[in-house]
Amino acid sequence: MIEEGRVKFITDGVFYNPRMRFCRDLDMVVFSELDSTEYLDALAASGVRGIRAAVEASKQPVFNDLNPKAVEVIKQNLKLNGLEAEVYCRDASILMRERSFEHVDVDPFGSPSAFIDSACFSARKYMSVTATDTAALCGSATNSGLKKYGAYAVKTDTYHETGLRMLIGFAVREATKYEKALTPLVSWTKEHYYRVHFRVRKSTSQAGKVYEKMGYINFCSKCLRKEISAMGESREKCECGGKFILLGPIWLGELKQKDFVEELYGKTDGKLREFLGKLKEEVEAATTYNLQQIASRVAERVPTTLGVVERLREMGYQASRTHYCGFCIRTDAEIDVLAEIIKDLS
Ligand SMILES: C[S@@+](CC[C@H](N)C(=O)[O-])C[C@H]1O[C@@H](n2cnc3c(N)ncnc32)[C@H](O)[C@@H]1O
Ligand SMILES: [Zn+2]
Predict the structure, then answer these.
(1) Are 51 and 76 in contact, with CB atoms under 8 Å apart?
(2) CATH architecture assignment, domain 2-259
(3) Furthest-apart CA pair in the chain: how many Å?
(4) How far is the C-alpha of 113 from the C-alpha of 120, rounded, in Å?
(5) How far is the CA of 229 from the centre of ligand 1 (A)?
(6) For residues 47 and 119, is the Cβ–Cβ distance under 8 A?
(7) DSSP state of 304
């Protein structure tokens, strides 16, 4: 018998990853903030997430898993926790095509790409997605990224940023064919996974508008410069004379809704609060840099991340640390400005 959050359950050989507990803990705080009841745990395995959603966030879960053994385990786990719910043994894509749900959660092995189309079709208010195929998303497996997410990436000095934005960008694009606009309420990367919770709005005009926040990151591998460009917009060569590599199409909009994350922050303590504090602090610039990598080219030492952030702010730039890397910063300043600060502070 395993205990997690306020529930107890068995796995009986069905998939369960205790390392995802932090993610589920944070999910419960997120779910509690959503004005929805019906929740599809589309790839439920033991059903731990949906059962926690019922007990800890007052949701009415519907469970699904293609594995009949998982369905058996989910039914036992519902009994163990004194709950009743619908449980399906279907291909998640087919179920989501046949029925719409207020909130759809896609938590597969590896890539969610095959499920996102039908999840977008099904979700009326919210959609949550996990991805563990980080290599395909962050640019270290370029061809896999093209095949699964229809976007081009190479590994940069801040590859987790690319991964999260590739995943969001793909989901946002998939939804627009159904005239739905997705907005990330909160998103993060940790250890081996990416997680995004979206608000879904059905609106022809809003669905068109999302492309104002899609575009490309122009990356120069020679000097590590990053510049963003809108859909259809092209860039000349990099100022250093190097060639730009176009990463995308990729999401260039917000990774979170600040007031939503502030609400969550106010309701948590301990490790969750600490993590949400980092998310809350992040500015919204889509350009991120790794101070170690820049310093290795221009200075003898790496200055403190906070020191660089503070200097940038004094100079009037947007700047913050990032939640996923201690040496990475998020800023709208150009790389030449950063290089000068690094030289000065090191
Ligand atoms: C990563 S596990 C889910 C973990 C679970 N959400 C949790 O929090 O513990 C993925 C599950 O998806 C199921 N699965 C794989 N392909 C599926 C499909 N096409 N439709 C429905 N379920 C599927 C697997 O049987 C497995 O139980
Ligand atoms: Zn350059």
Answers:
(1) no
(2) 3-Layer(aba) Sandwich (3.40)
(3) 66
(4) 11
(5) 37
(6) no
(7) P
Tens of pLDDT, residues 5-62 = 999 999 999 999 999 999 999 999 999 999 999 999 999 999 999 999 999 999 999 9
* Fold classification of 285-345 (topology level): Phenylalanyl-tRNA Synthetase; Chain B, domain 1 (3.30.56)
Residue type, 99: R
Instruction: Grade residue 280 by pLDDT with cuts at 50, 70 and 90.
Output: very high
Q: Which of 109, 118, 133, 194 to mutate to test ligand 1, by most ligand atoms within 8 A of the CB atom? A: 109
Query: Any idea how long the chain is?
Result: 346
SS3 for 274? helix
User: How many Cβ atoms sit within 10 Å of the Cβ of residue 345?
Assistant: 17
Percent of the chain exceeding pLDDT 70 equals 100
Distance between Cα 193 and ligand 2 center (Å): 30
Domain residue ranges in the chain: 2-259, 285-345
Q: Which residue has the tokens 């894509």?
A: 93
Q: Ligand 1 — pocket residues by CB below 6 A? A: 15-16, 20, 43-46, 48-49, 64-67, 70, 91-92, 107-109
| Residue nearest (by alpha carbon) to ligand 1 atom 26 | 45
For 191: left if phi > 0, alpha if psi spans -120 to 50, otherwise beta; the answer is left
The ligand that comes nearest to the alpha carbon of residue 222 is 2
Q: Model confidence over 86-102: pLDDT tens digits?
A: 999 999 999 999 999 99
Residue/partner pairs of 320-323 with CB below 8 Å, 24 or more apart: 320/281, 320/282, 320/283, 321/278, 321/281, 321/282, 322/158, 322/161, 322/278, 322/282, 322/288, 323/188, 323/189, 323/275, 323/278, 323/279, 323/282
pTM: 0.98
* DSSP-derived 3-state class of residue 40: strand
The C-alpha atoms of residue 65 and residue 57 are separated, in whole angstroms, by 22
